[in-house]
Amino acid sequence: MYIIQCYAPTNDSNDDIKDQFYERLQSIIEKCPRKDLTILMGGLNVKVGIDNIGYEDIMGRHGLGERNGNEGRFANLCAFNKLVIGGTIFPHKHIHKDTWISSDHTTENQIDHICINKKF
């Protein structure tokens, strides 16, 4: 079993920093044998939302909110490596979906994720 814990750059970071992060993350994932269980988890700062068009193999329609600018890199990484975005597959109560809440409690986001390879 391989567990990869990471913290991704925020949506406000410049594209070069985000690209470097995802390139490095890809190089780490590639070192994990495909036959073994691989779990990717952490503060990925990605809002995947409920729209899974084009990504039906790796995510369901049970995310929270709408996508942000980071979802493309993350979804492509997951699709390329056959990693399923866990919190989107099954329905959950709304209060169990949010992983970040603003200090004034007006904004809720699901930006932390656990992904597992499709083998399991």
Automatic annotation (TrEMBL):
Coiled coil: none
Source species, domain of life: Eukaryota
PANTHER family: BUCENTAUR RELATED, CRANIOFACIAL DEVELOPMENT PROTEIN 2-LIKE
Name this polypeptide is given: Endonuclease/exonuclease/phosphatase domain-containing protein
Organism name: Schistosoma curassoni
